[in-house]
Design goal:
Belongs to the heat shock protein 90 family. This is Chaperone protein HtpG. Homodimer. By secondary structure, the chain is α+β, with helices and mostly antiparallel strands. It contains 21 helices and 23 strands. It is elongated. It has a ten-stranded mixed β-sheet, with helices on one face. The protein is about 35% helix and about 20% strand.
């Protein structure tokens, strides 16, 4: 609704309105986080200005004003002001970023908050809704901004009381940047105190490398400004000067995650190339971990100047959960993504960073297995991508993989490949695995029966990435070949004795006629019918033909639930199979054949192509059984 030529009134988008209501009425603990969030946003705005100066000639000129963040208060007006001389916003950016469009994390924030206590403010910031925290303490907020590169008359003023509407108007603003004025609610006057504001800044924002300034409290020096924070890049300071709290505080700033990281590394490398790494392993996955367009969490600095956020040039995609900073002294300040891709220095730095992160994870796995279990639960599926993405480090990544197995203590993935190899049975020369759509399906699979009887451990794999992991990329570990228990004729290596081989050969001869008839009946449905050495209690199962990719991969590719060449295997010791062999002239043999095949399909977790026919055949057999009390 247009009020004047340059003034418009808007209604908040529904999810934003819900967030504002939560800010005003629910998030009551640690109210001072509003200042942390506004300062963090101001710092990001200045970082973006630095970045744009390298790509836009019209922004390259420096106006002589040092980059800084100002915090001020006015007791009489009951206001707190946070301002920066960063990149600023245009009118369109103000409308897009504040109010009319739910930003990427808004819905996830609401969902996460509904699972937490309403008073927990730790979620703010992680989901990109930090600006709205101003309404925790303010009854009305005014924002004035001008984007770098625009004329003075193209400034924008935004105002709202957070109750459903906001106003945007064009104003004159002589300088670029953003100024936010908070009109405090009743009862928040304790914030109108220089010492209080300084203590909040030093607690939450001391690690920010930009100066955060406030007017001097001394009345005789009102015109002077003092820097409240240390205003030095934390990663440039000696480790001996830094505490764990310093590292954790910086992690919260760089990641917008207000839980402590699981681990971090701080390394300064000198030699052919000079660079510093400060990298963190989070303790929980960000909401956009699986969003392809999501930015990765590492920022590149050159001589302490922010250059760009990583989008795959610094760390490979499978390490996209890593947060932190890489600061190089050997790259030009005007470095671009194109220069990064062809830079030997960047290639060296990236390779070193990857190896250090993998070593950090390895140390975590060895020395703090409980923490590593948390990491694996959050990021294990992502790390598995590295088997395909990073061939030079495949062995190191393989050592970090964890799986659930038939010997797992619980449902958690707690078995490494080295654990498996170390406890292999005497005579076992393969690592056995089972791919299934779910862990429950894997645990109940008839394909495991013979392996359980022999006491052979089997890895149970249920994630989509596992198909690619074991069928084409990770074919051996520690000199032991990986073998699917659902593909081809079971190969027990040295675990099968002569008596078992003789029994299998005898069964194949004894059931040859039945197998021939069943194969004829199931022509076009089953690629083959044969006797099984993998079953002990189930009458039948489906396996993939020897020459085919593992059937679970085939199923997910084709969407049918079966391999393209399904083989029906029968258990010679099952009473049903024995009776069918004794009564091969039974007129209902075809019905039994199709029911056995359908039953095997169901235990596989797949889909029967014609469920109505399956039900009709099964009902007919049940009726016959009630009439004569036999299987025939």
């Amino acid at each position: 609704m247009t009020l004047e030529a340059n003034t418009e009134k808007f209604t908040f988008q529904a999810e934003v309105a819900r967030i504002l209501d939560l800010m005003a009425h629910s998030l009551y603990s640690k109210k001072e986080i509003f200042l942390r969030e506004l300062i963090s946003n101001a710092s990001d705005a200045i970082d973006r200005l630095r970045f744009e100066r390298f790509s836009r000639a019209d922004l390259a000129e420096d106006d002589g004003e040092p980059l800084r963040i100002r915090v001020a208060y006015d007791k009489d007006a009951r206001t707190i002001t946070v301002s920066d001389n960063g990149v600023g916003m245009s009118r369109a950016e103000v409308i897009e970023n504040i109010g009319t469009i739910a930003r990427s994390g808004t819905a996830e924030f609401l969902e996460a908050l509904s699972r937490e206590q309403r008073g927990d403010s730790s979620l703010i910031g992680q989901f990109g809704v930090g600006f709205y925290s101003a309404f925790v303490v303010a009854e009305r907020v005014e924002l004035t901004t001008r984007r770098a590169g625009l004329a003075a008359g193209e400034g924008v003023r935004w105002e709202s009381d957070g109750k459903g509407e906001y106003v945007v108007e064009t104003v004159d603003r002589p300088d670029r940047g953003t100024t936010i004025v908070l009109h405090l609610r009743e009862g928040e006057d304790d914030l109108l105190n220089g010492y209080r504001l300084r203590s909040i800044i030093q607690r939450y924002s001391d690690h920010i490398s930009l100066p955060i300034v406030m007017a001097a409290e001394d009345e005789s020096a009102q015109a002077e400004e003092t820097t409240v924070n240390q205003a030095s890049a934390l990663w440039t300071r000696p480790k001996s000067e830094l505490s764990e709290r310093d590292y954790h505080d910086y992690y919260r700033h760089v990641s917008h995650d207000y839980t402590d990281p699981l681990a971090y590394l701080h390394s300064k490398v000198e030699g052919r190339y000079e660079y510093t790494l400060l990298l963190y392993i989070p303790s929980r996955a960000p909401y956009d971990l699986w969003v392809p367009q999501a930015r990765q969490g590492v920022k590149l600095h050159v001589q302490r100047v922010f250059i760009l956020e990583d989008s795959g040039e610094l760390l490979p995609r499978y390490l996209r959960f890593v947060r932190g900073v890489i600061d190089s002294a050997d790259l030009p300040l005007n470095v671009s993504r194109e220069l990064l891709q062809g830079s030997r220095a960047v290639s060296h730095i990236c390779s070193s960073a990857v190896k250090k992160v993998l070593k950090l994870l390895n140390d975590l796995a060895r020395n703090e297995p409980d923490k590593y279990a948390v990491f694996w639960k959050e990021f294990g599926a992502v790390l598995k991508e590295g088997i395909a993405d990073d061939p030079p480090n495949r062995e190191e990544i393989a050592e970090l993989l964890r799986f659930t197995s038939t010997r797992s203590a619980g449902q958690e993935a707690d078995v490494s490949l080295q654990d498996y190899v170390d406890r292999m049975k005497e005579g076992q020369d393969k690592i056995y695995y089972l791919l299934a759509p779910t862990l429950a399906a894997a645990t109940a699979s008839p394909h495991l029966e013979a392996f359980r009887k022999k006491g052979v451990e089997v890895l149970l794999l249920g994630e989509a990435v596992d198909n690619w992991l074991v069928t084409g990329l990770l074919q051996e570990f520690g000199g032991k070949r990986l073998q699917s228990v659902t593909q081809g004729v079971p190969d027990f290596g040295g675990l099968e004795d002569e008596a078992e081989k003789e029994a299998a050969s005898k069964a194949s001869a004894e059931y040859a006629a039945l197998l021939g008839k069943l194969k004829e009946i199931l022509a076009g449905t089953a690629y083959d019918v044969r006797m099984s050495s993998r079953l002990t209690t189930s009458p039948a199962c489906i396996v993939a033909n020897e020459a085919e990719t593992d059937f679970t991969l085939a199923r997910r590719m084709r969407g049918s639930g079966l391999p393209s060449q399904p083989v029906l295997e029968l258990n010679a010791e099952h009473v049903l199979v024995k009776r069918l062999n004794e009564r091969q002239d039974d007129p209902r043999l075809a019905d039994w054949a199709h029911v056995l095949f359908g039953q095997a399909v169901l235990t596989l977790g797949a889909r029967i192509d014609d469920p109505a026919s399956f039900a009709d055949r099964l009902n007919g057999l049940l009726v016959a059984l009630t009439e004569d009390g036999t299987t025939g």
